[in-house]
Amino acid sequence: MNQSRRLRQTIETEIVDGRLALGARLDETELAERFGVSRTPIREALLQLAMTGLVEVKPRRGAIVSAPDPQLLIAMFETMAEIEASCGRLAARRLVPDDEAALKAALAACALSAEAGDPETYYAENYIFHTVVYRACRNGFLEEQARQLHRRLAPFRRLQLRARNRLGQSLAEHAAIVAAIVAGDEAGASDLLRAHVIVQGDRFSDLVAGLRSINAAA
Question: Is the pTM of this model over 0.85?
Fold first, then answer.
């Protein structure tokens, strides 16, 4: 993992945890001094965060901590759900032995993280699981689109995993997805991935509550 990505994840965690409040100014020089790096990787990290909506770069004010409107987030998750559904459908049709082995290994890693009850570790394994699904679709363009939107939504997918009992639910959904893909069930894999990603009902409430907790810390 390169330096700017490590810095992005550190700053992202502090925003989601509320240690960096909404509206707080992110001064490149101060952050560079704090992390003992030059301003270049700091600038790159802030630009990456700006793509997620957690940071907004304003003229004459520089970068500030922000959060997207919930309705925009819902639209983004809806799009992500459809993209992942397509990846699942194609993966079920085109699965090769190497991808099947990688899917099962990623599922096992998720299970270990869920048993530990650590959302941060699970989040890392969850990311790997989804990227394996993308690769298994054997469509390079679709895979890249999925990766890009996944990165943009990463802080909020991470926030969702902090909801009570979500790790166990997510793991069960992963297991069902793997079973459908391995069985060649295109419709089942598509439907399961769509339901796994889309934010509605209780998940919408949990996401809004998480965003409100960030606001309350501001």
Answer: no
